[in-house]
Amino acid sequence: LATGPRQNNGIFYEIRTYDIKPAKMKEFLEIVNKYLHFRTAHSELVGFWYTELGAMNKVLHIWKYDNFAHRTAVRHAIANDKDWQGKLMSAILPLLEKQHNEVAYLVPWCQLGKPPKEGGVYEWVTFQMKPGGPALWGEAFRAAINAHINTGYTTLIGVFHTEYGLLNTVHVLWWNESLDHRAAGRHSAHEDARVVAAVRDSVRFLESQQNVLLLPLQCSPLK
Question: Which of 151, 139, 143, 149 is nearest to 197 (CA)?
Fold first, then answer.
């Protein structure tokens, strides 16, 4: 089933997740921090993170494209970029175990945000919703997100729903000042009747949920 409503433009986001070989993460991060500028010369990087809790030996990066023709042109250009191929890709490929990508749109009611300051931690929350797309569960999901925002303990960066990949998947990217600040905020939120009511309504459409703590690379625009 189609994912339903999206923003009224062609902009989409490619979400790439790489599994790194155990004991090779430090080497991978050093290479990416040193040479990623060869890749960002071709298109906009939203953010680049590695996992700290909830998953191990993974990195996640998000790329923004104006439309699918833009992505095609970028992929053609980087395939012919000798610096990118020789200094970055050839160095990291032996360190990878698996690659996965998704194409996602921002939900209609969300604009991509930024944290109030550098530092802090990011939380990547993946919700697998029941088939039907935002037309079915969008309003209830929005209410649950807004209920958490209104507590004031966390900052919303973006809400993405998939177009390619596993459909009816929603990824929510949050920023918190620290992991302890997040823990205290969530504890208070879960005692807030408004949050409890909104979440209870939205989970009617929920099949599964996973949370991952992310830390940004030095080269990440979102820090």
Answer: 143
Q: In which region does residue 10 sit, left (phi positive, over 0), alpha (psi from -120 to 50) or beta (all else)?
A: alpha
Q: Say what the pLDDT of residue 153 is.
A: 87
Domains of the chain by residue range: 12-104, 106-216
pLDDT tens track for 164-218: 999 999 999 999 999 999 999 989 888 899 999 999 999 999 999 999 999 999 9
Residue 75 identity: R
Structure tokens at 48: 């680049």
Taking a C-beta distance cutoff of 8 angstroms, is the pair 204, 143 a contact? no
Q: Judge whether 12-104 and 106-216 match in fold.
A: yes
What SS3 class is residue 80? coil
What count of residues does the chain have? 223
Long-range pairs, 96-100, Cβ under 8 A, ≥24: 96/18, 96/19, 96/20, 96/21, 97/19, 97/20, 97/21, 97/57, 98/18, 98/19, 99/16, 99/17, 99/18, 99/19, 100/16, 100/17, 100/18, 100/165
pTM: 0.93
Query: With contact defined as beta carbons under 8 Å apart, do 110 and 138 qualify?
Result: no
Give the H/E segment covering residue 166.
none
Q: Does 106-216 carry CATH code 3.40.309.10?
A: no
Q: CA–CA separation, 138 vs 144, rounded Å? A: 10
Fold of 12-104: Alpha-Beta Plaits (3.30.70)
DSSP 128: E
